[in-house]
Structures are given as C-alpha cells and as structure tokens.
Amino acid sequence: MTESDHQPAGRPDASAPDPTADGTRSLEFEVEVPGTPEQVWEAIATGPGISSWFVPHTVAEQEGGATVARFGPGDGMEMPGRVAAWEPPNRVVFEDAGDEAGMAYEWLVEARDGGTCVVRLVNSGFGTGDHWDEMYDGMGSGWPMFLRNLTLHLTHFPGQAATAALPGTTFTGDRAELWAMLADKLGFAPDPKPGDDVTLQATDQLAVAGTVAGVSEQWFAVVTEKPERGTALFALETIGDRNQASVWLYLYGESGAAAAARDEVAWQAWLEGLQPA
To answer: What pTM did the predictor assign?
Structure first.
C-alpha cells in the first residue's frame, strides 16, 4: 500500500533517538483540518470531541481538571490524567496523572485563510530503554492514523459526537501473511486505495462498508455507511514482535451508539477467534 496524499506530517523516527537533556524524547505532527478554531478546539479539547476520533475520554474543561481515557474494557484500560494548560481555542496540554513524570500531549491550533486550521501535536515525555523505544515506535505510527480520523470527523461530521468501539487483538508471526489472511477472511483487496468502495464482512450480521478515505502501510480509514454513518480504522500495526489487529469504529447518532455497543463485542470475539496459519 502507498501512503495517501493527505496524511499528517511528523517526525516519528525512533531509529535514531534524540533525547533531550533530561533523557526524554518527543513526537511532533502537523495536519491541516477544516473548521474554525472554535470547532477544532471542541474536537481536540472536550470529552465528546476526542471520543469521536480517538478513544473515549472524559475531560474536566479547565486547567487542573481531571481527564480519563479508556483504551478498552475493564478498569486496567483506563488512564487518568489532568489538564496542564487550558487556553481556548488555541492551546491545550494533557498530562498523564501519577506521582512520576509521564507523557504530555500539547495541542496547538492556528487559523488559516479559507476556513481551515493547522493542528500541531507535540507528544513528549518518552524515556529511554526497550519499553520506551517500543512505545515511541507504536505512537509514532499510531498518531497519523488518528489524526487522519480527526480530519475525517471535522470534514464529514462537524459539531456531531460519535460513539467509539475499540475491538482488537494481538498476533505473532509474519505481518504480510497476517495481512493477507485478514484481507481474505474479510473480503477486501489487500492494497486498498483512497476512493475505493470497501466492505469488511466478518459474518452475515457483522460488517463495515464505506469508502476508503486514507491509506498507510499499517492501516486504512473508511467513511462508513454500514453499520451506521461514521468512520472506521482498520489496522494491523506492528509493535516490537507483535502485530495488533484492530477495527476501530466511530458511529454517530443514537443508532450509531447502539451499533457501536453491539458490534464492539462481536468484532472482539471474531478477532480473538481467528487462527493464523
């Protein structure tokens, strides 16, 4: 697969780490999105906004306010944090909570002519060592996928809120073989391109259908019509010696919320039931 023309720019190169004086590293990304600064701020700084393109969040909308990000079911998948800076509509900083220094996420919004804004993300606080190298690589490849979804959210569903479903599982083995297996079982071309109509058909009742709206080496994004209007991210991300297969769904409206709750469980069971050769 080739990368589409409208992916976020960034510097996620962990092969040559450049720690700062305190031993930490950072990732930086920049993407131009449609909307006013106020519309973009709602998408990146509020709980309903972030939940519509990343993972479910709650945010106390003030400096010092508490945040919680949920990366999956169960208490162990909830990550507490805090709002370190709150400067609407141009700058917000989220930090991991805890006694020890954690990662920080600084979001900067700058208006441009023509009704767009440039959004810049600085994800800092990565330490040194194998664990941090793996985290750096994983987030370096993951953020462009979610920033693409932010762009799709602001392009197709401005001012609306989506309900997210986060099914995923981990495989070991050759990534190319795993990707070919998933393409075969779900019935999509192994090299999707922006503009392609695509259907991921796991079972007669479990499917995602829509138009490909972004492609990278480890994922593709879809603007969906089925099971409801929204977006989906289909990914096979390689992190260390593991391959994480995910079908991220973001569905709008009351019917979308019902479909997300229903299909999250079904997709999770389907993924976990796969038996790679």
So the answer is: 0.90
